[in-house]
Amino acid sequence: MASSRLALTQHRWFPWVAWVLAGLVALGVAFVIESRSGGHRLTAARMTTSDTTGYQLPPATSPESLRTSGRAVTMPHAPAPVFAPTAETSPQKIATRVTWYSLSVPPLPDDGRQLYLYIPRWKSDGSLAVYADGHLIHQSHANLQWNGSNEPLLIKVPRTDVSHPPHRLDIRMQHVRGIGGAFSSVWIGTYRQLAPRYTIREILQVQLTSFSSFAFLATGVFAFFVWLTRRNEPIYLLYFLTSALVFLRMLHTFVGVHPLIISDAWFGWLTVASPYWMIVVLHLFVAELHGKRQPWLTGAALLVSIVSTIATLPGLIDPTLMSAPVYVNLLILGVVVAFNGVRQSVRFKSRDAMLLSIWCLITVVSGIYDLGLQQNLISIESVFVSNFTGVGFTLLFWYIMFGRYIEALETATQAKADLARRLAQREAELTASHAKLREVERRELLHQERQRLMQDMHDGLGSTLVGALRAFEGGKTAELDTVGILRGCIDDLKLTIDSMEPVETDLLLLLATLRFRLQPRLEAAGVKLVWDAGEVPPLEWLDQRHALHILRIMQEAIANVLKHSGAKTLTVSVRAEGDQVLVRVQDDGRGFEPAGLPAGGRGLANQLSRAEAIGGAIRWEETQRGSSLALALPVSKVRRPLS
Amino acid sequence: MSMEAASTTPLKVALVEDDAAFQQAFRNALAAAPDLSMVGVAATAAEARVMLGEAPCDVLVVDLGLPDGSGVDIIGEAHGRWPGCAIMVATTFADERHVIASIEAGASGYLLKDSPLPTIAEDIRVLHAGGSPISPRIARQVLMRFRPDEKPAEEGSADAEAAEKSGIPSLSEREKETLQLITRGFSFEEIAELMGVSRNTVLTFVRRIYAKLEVRSKTEAVFEARAYGLL
Fold first, then answer.
1. Is there a single domain that holds both residue B77 and residue B152?
2. Is there a single domain that holds both residue B114 and residue B202?
3. I want to staple A389 with a disulfide (CB 3.0 to 4.6 A). Which of A209, A224, A298, A363 is the partner?
């Protein structure tokens, strides 16, 4: 169960469905509350109008004649407005009209309970005064034009000692001739009967836009500070500008009940000019999302916006009065930018840009509806839909920024993981290449070792054994010193084995090993060995390959002495001389002429090539008696690659 | 005492070796020496163990590569059961790994298998008389084993002290000098001359070094076992 619930929340559509469900639940609750409320709705009225100039204060009591004068109308009632009413902007000289609505109240029980009037919407473009049984009970006290007409009214019917439910309600509106003067139906009842209706309309019409504007602005300020540290990301600045413009635009939906700190003209200018800039900024924001700028369109939108902004400056065209043409102009700009946004979003495949552009289009459509409402073409009891699409913009912008934030986090996480992965990969590669190198090195070493031993066997053990074999085959065994040959072979083998053990730069140890191996043969031959081992520095280059070469050179030298010289004494001396180590093999035998020695030919050549291979040299030195071979080895040498 | 005994009764020599050719050569070598007598031959470790149950002999020669076990084990057992017997390991190459393992097990010398027959007999005599052969490489190995810093350095001086107390022997200066001269290729005679002692003294040094090597390997095993909490 738990796992399936988890799986459900992991679906991509889950948040959307949750949002839609939450919205439906909120609507349902609103409908339930609305349906449970009561009160009487008054729709029948008589309307009396009279033309005036400028604005006058309402009378303290309403004329009795209103009950019969004028004509019967059904509330809500809105006179057809004039598209461009007047060019006159001074409130004292403006052509105005007083419109009276007189409504009869059905008999209500006089149980002393407080009664209220609930007026969903009214639109005066001027002043409003409400009378109960002829007595003034409510009047607008703020500005003439921006007077909070978007806010529903909940008016207490005064209770006095002669209080009884009123029989008659009179409504006086003095407004610009040609616009305003529209009024919704009027509800009368107790607080419990009317409060739910009033509250829901108040929330939808005023609180919602107010809350969303403030919240949007707050996040906008946050985005602004983000932009200050990340100047190369203009999207944050655009977000802030959007939030600020939406806030300015939305102000008129929740202020105006009380006097404004600026004049009607300036407030109207703000309200009318801000949506132009909203469209411009939205256009830039969408371009930022899909990544393709359009300087021409941006320029055109800017131009339209600048012209409209300047044209609606107070003192030029009064936007409040001229709102209809100004809004038509705005809708055209909105349609162009929205369609362009949709097209670009499709072309450059940006989901967020598409969402915003489509919402912009929806806003334009709702703007047409609102224009209809503003022009009294639609029932005045309806609401401005673009206020809600404005809230939708707030949510959309939040959604987009949330997406960017999540994406940035994802990217950071991904980058971290990527870095770790790349590092691990690199490490693995390095390890692999290292292992490969080592393997190559190992194989090379093995190969060299094999070569070394094979060469050695070929020159020494192998040729000796083959020679012996041939002798056996030829039946010349009698001529052979079989035991001598075999002992020689074993000695060869022992030296080969010795050369495999490391001597660690110790030449004397190597020579000592040689002596240890050859001592029995020398003793057998009756040759006295004088061992004169002096101090020798460590030879850094002395590895196994070099060791075997030295052993073989020395072995050959000693063997030559034993074979040919007839010497009684053999001296091996080791001395360090300068940057060389000299190993001398001297004997007191017959003497020895290296060039003229027939049997030694190959052996001598071998010695020379071995000495060369290890970077040493061999000299046959003049002595008074016998012969002297000197092997000169460098103390240190630049290590050459093994050949 | 041994010299006196040698003049009267021949040395009792036993061989543990599975190679029939070397057995024969060994027999021949001893047959040619009236002062040496072959008292037993074992071709396997099992036979060798039976032999060790009998009366001890003077010199035991053991080959390491037996068909049913390692000669090193036989050397160890022989050293325990026949404490007065001089044990030699028979080897072709006198490679330090095998020889040192044998010495640590209780052998006091080695016999080169390719030696001429008279040399074999002579080596047996020398060993019994207290002389042990030592190659330069073995000398170097022994030196390295006794080098104080050769033990794991991280364990510090406290452990070194503990090692001292636990009875791990160390080499004397003279013994070290002897070994160093051996690694430089000098013979016993030359070393005796260089150090101003008799050849016998040098031989004693070597025998003592071998004994220390054996003690060291055993105490070290105990010491390590203690360190690991096994004892």
1. no
2. no
3. A363
Distances (CA, A) of A572 to A202, B150, B186: 119, 33, 11
Residue with tokens 């390991």: B89
Give CA–CA dist A103/A87, Å, rounded: 34
Average pLDDT, chain A: 83
The last residue of one of the domains, among B93, B109, B128, is: B128
Q: Which among A67-76, A610-619, B49-58, B138-147 has the top mean pLDDT?
A: B49-58
Contact B116 A501 (CB under 8 A): no
CB neighbour list of residue B60: distance below 8 Å, 6 or more residues apart: B13, B14, B15, B16, B78, B82, B85, B86, B87, B88
pLDDT digits (tens, 9 = 90+) for A99-109: 899 998 888 87
CA dihedral (A32, A36, A37, A39) positive or negative = positive
Same domain, B182 and B221: yes
Largest pairwise CA distance in chain B:
56
Residue B230, pLDDT score = 62
Identify which of A94, A87, A88 has the alpha carbon closest to the alpha carbon of residue A56: A94
Can you give the pLDDT at residue A600?
47
- For position B176, which CATH number holds? 1.10.10
State whether residue A135 sits within 8 Å of chain B by CB.
no
Are A127 and A149 spatial neighbours (Cβ–Cβ below 8 Å)? Answer: no
Would an 8 Å CB–CB cutoff place A164 in contact with chain B? no
- Across the interface, do B185 and A516 touch by the CB < 8 Å criterion? yes
Residues B90 and B9 in one domain: yes
Are B151 and B188 spatial neighbours (Cβ–Cβ below 8 Å)? no
Q: How many CA atoms lie within 13 A of A70 on its CB side?
A: 22
- Give the domain range for residue B10: 2-128
Q: How many residues does chain B have?
A: 231
**CATH code, domain carrying B26:** 3.40.50.2300
Number of domains into which chain B is organized? 2
For A497, the closest of B93, B114, B116 (CB atoms) is B93
Residues B86 and B191 occupy one common structural domain = no
Same domain flag for B86 and B188: no
The string of pLDDT tens digits covering residues A312-367 is: 887 766 655 666 777 888 888 888 888 888 888 888 888 888 888 888 888 888 88
How much is the ipTM here?
Answer: 0.84
Q: For A459-517, what is each residue's pLDDT tens digit?
A: 778 887 887 888 788 777 777 777 878 888 888 888 888 887 777 788 888 899 889 88
The residue from B96, B128, B160 where one domain ends is B128
Q: Residue A25's pLDDT is what? A: 93
> How far apart are the C-alpha atoms of A219 and A230, rounded to whole Å?
16
Which residues in chain B have their CB less than 8 angstroms from residue A481's CB?
Answer: none
Q: Do A518 and B172 form a contact (C-beta atoms < 8 A)? A: no
Report CB contact under 8 Å: B140, A524.
no
Token pair listed for A49 = 């109008």
Q: Which of A208, A213, A341 is nearest to A286 (CA)?
A: A341
